[in-house]
Amino acid sequence: MVKQLPSLSELREWMTANPEATGREIARAFGIKGAAKIDLKAMLRELEGEGIAPRRRAVGGALPPVTVLEVLGPDADGDLFARPIEWRGQGAAPRVILLAPKDLGAGDRVLAKCEAMRGPDYDYQAKVIRKIGANPQRILGLFRKGTEGGRVMPIDKGADRDWMVAPHDVNGAQDGELVLAEPMGRARFGPPRAHVVERLGDPTAPKAVSLIAIHQHGIRDAFDDAVVAEADSAQPLPLGKRLDLREMALMTIDPWDARDHDDALYAERRGDGFTLWVAIADVAAYVRPGSELDREARKRGNSTYFPDRVVPMLPDTLSGDLCSLHEGVDRPCLALEMQIDAEGNKTGHRFHRAMMRSAASLTYEQAQAADEGRLDAQTEPLADSLADLFACYRALSRARARRQPLDIDLPERQIVLSDEGRVSSVAFKERFDAHRLVEECMVLANVAAAETLREKGRPLLYRVHEEPSPDKLEGLRQVARETGLVLAKGQVLHTRHLNRLLAQAEGTEFDEMINMATLRSMTQAYYAPQNFGHFGLALREYAHFTSPIRRYADLIVHRALIAAHGWGDDGLSAWDVEHLEETAKAISEAERRSMTAERDTNDRYLAAYLAERVGAEFAGRISGVARFGVFVKLDETGADGLVPIRSIGAEYFRHDPEAQSLTGERTGATIQIGQRVLVKLAEAEPMTGGLMLELLEVEGESLPVARGGPSRGGPKRKAVKAKRKATKLARKSRRKG
Signal peptide span per the entry (predicted)? Predict the structure, then answer.
């Protein structure tokens, strides 16, 4: 019989008499089962504040955030538990409770998102991502209610049919809602059937924004059954002939919300210099040339990142688990050993195919705090290693300063969503030395990969960034002249010349404007089998090597290194080599497609966020000037809006495309890129992401009023009429002659 919950004093008295009792034993002693365990857990947390706590089961290590679990089956209370397939920690494997499990039984394997959450009889809670071996296809569409059930109208551009939904499969969907549905197979007669699995609500709501962008831009977000089956059949790899680095304190440093970990770092002092290790996930061991996984990864080109979701290049079994360098588990890698002198110069390097075990999965904030002397339980055992790593970074920084890569400094915004999928805030990401540390190590590793493959005469994909075009450079010079700064002409352009311009602007009112104009003058980087150098990084040769979980170009470079070193039969294939040019073009296009989808999604989120503030005033800076209006970047959110030319002042404005300026014909008022402005939000359209603004002030002053009253386009129209009249008179004169 289930007893009532004990009082807090009864629980305190019992636990004082039984100090070694576990949470499960406490629940059993009081006959507490099922949902009542949640209340018991709350009482135990309250007692922990008094120093009275149940004995925890010894669990060394931690489960990765995404891992494969084996279902153990329900207990007497009906709760479903599971155990991790991989566990190399101390003591028994942690016990995991599955939240809201569906159609699962003992022995099933699931991919799940795990969260450390101590309960009376479990160590983790896990939300099932999907059952291994299952790959339900999803249809995104608008639900239209009918007399019996309804239908789903897919928003895919190429969709040529609707899906019928029976009354019992509607799942509460309302007319006009955006829904996710799963096919149920074609009926013997009539259209195919589906059932609604998730209601996404208003198609204009923030939660739907990224899904719409995915489908609008043709981002592949569903894996074929064959691809998923191939990923699900993958198993952890043995050490074999790999170099054993499992005792080395390699650590990952990533954003706090990272699901996958591509790279790990370790450094130790060697005399006046350092030995720096960069270990990268060995994705090539799982994604072999010509496989279903390979073909799909090549089509996707890269992972695509949205504020509320990630569309991965590889199925989550690989991207979130087997390939990811999670803390405390063995993972295959390609390891780069580099010798760095006291001034940060790379004096030698060597690649290895290895096996590693991450000593810690750190966030940027943790690593930064450790460098500043604020250690926690995770970083304290690694204090010496972290000190050497940061010391190595500072040496690399000196080499970077001599090389002078382009040093554009513009804040990066981050959209923060609530649990309901709405924008709760827009923050600007803080930049730490920890970020720069990882970036410098990755740049060095990418250079080493390109150098090695060039020396060995092996084909690869370079990351190419060409210098700005003469026209764009002239535009940048014009902007610089308008602010009283100088970008010298008549010389071969190097990044140091641009950095000199940026340094002149630093700390002045034109700082952000010059950074913005310099960025706009740059060409877009791309992939190519030929080496044209990397202008922005001031490097002669550069290849992407460090992110093979999320970029196909890196996987190609890994295969080239495997083939060059004779490490196995999973290196660059003859087909890969033959189609390298096509691959470069395809993944460059995929990268641009993802960037556009990500940008459009951010614009829509921001428009939805600002829609409730129409009529409010915002400070900002002019980020672009066109014939049809002025673009303004708002300080508070980083959102971009348009001030239409027809709404500016009461006179005709002449557009100078080179200087990116507008000049009032009567007043001489000048509006140009970089100026500080005050604007009013006139319109915010979440479906398109568009913001319409009204210009109130420029550099703290209202626009001057043209004498003689409004003349919107007047002078120009009069000039055109006069010219037409003169032409007409000339024709008459010729006829008479």
Answer: none
* pLDDT at residue 715 greater than cutoff 50: no
pLDDT of residue 188: 61
What's the structural domain count of the chain? Answer: 6
- The DSSP output letter for 485 is -
Rounded Cα distance between 513 and 676, Å, is 10
Task: Name residues whose C-beta falls within 8 Å of residue 93's C-beta, 6 or more positions apart in sequence.
Answer: 83, 84, 87
Asked if the structure places residue 211 within a domain, the reply is no
The answer to whether residues 446 and 512 belong to one domain is: no
Could you tell me the pLDDT band of residue 719, with boundaries at 50, 70 and 90? very low
Q: Reply yes or no on whether the pLDDT at 57 is more than 50.
A: no
Treating both helix axes as pointing N-terminal to C-terminal, what angle do 8-17 and 36-48 enclose, rounded to 10 degrees? Answer: 70
Distance CA 150, CA 167 (A): 7
Q: Is residue 482 part of a domain?
A: yes
- Is the residue at 3 inside a domain? no
Query: Which residue segment(s) compose the domain that 44 sits in?
Result: 8-50
CA–CA separation, 443 and 437 (whole Å): 10
State the Cα–Cα distance between residues 505 and 510, nearest whole angstrom: 6
Average pLDDT over residues 132-147: 81
Predicted structure pTM score: 0.75
Does 579 lie in the same domain as 486? no
Cα-only R_g, the chain = 31
Say if residue 143 is in the same domain as residue 127: no
Q: What would the pLDDT profile of 571-625 be if each residue is shown by its tens digit?
A: 999 999 999 999 999 999 999 999 999 998 898 889 888 998 999 999 998 888 9
**708 occurs within a structural domain:** no
Tokens of 636: 């508070």
pLDDT > 60? residue 280: yes
Closest Cα to residue 593, out of 524, 689, 535? 524
Q: How many distinct helices (H) and strands (E) make up the chain? A: 17, 31
CA distance 468 to 421: 40
* Adjacent-strand bridge partners of 355: 244, 332
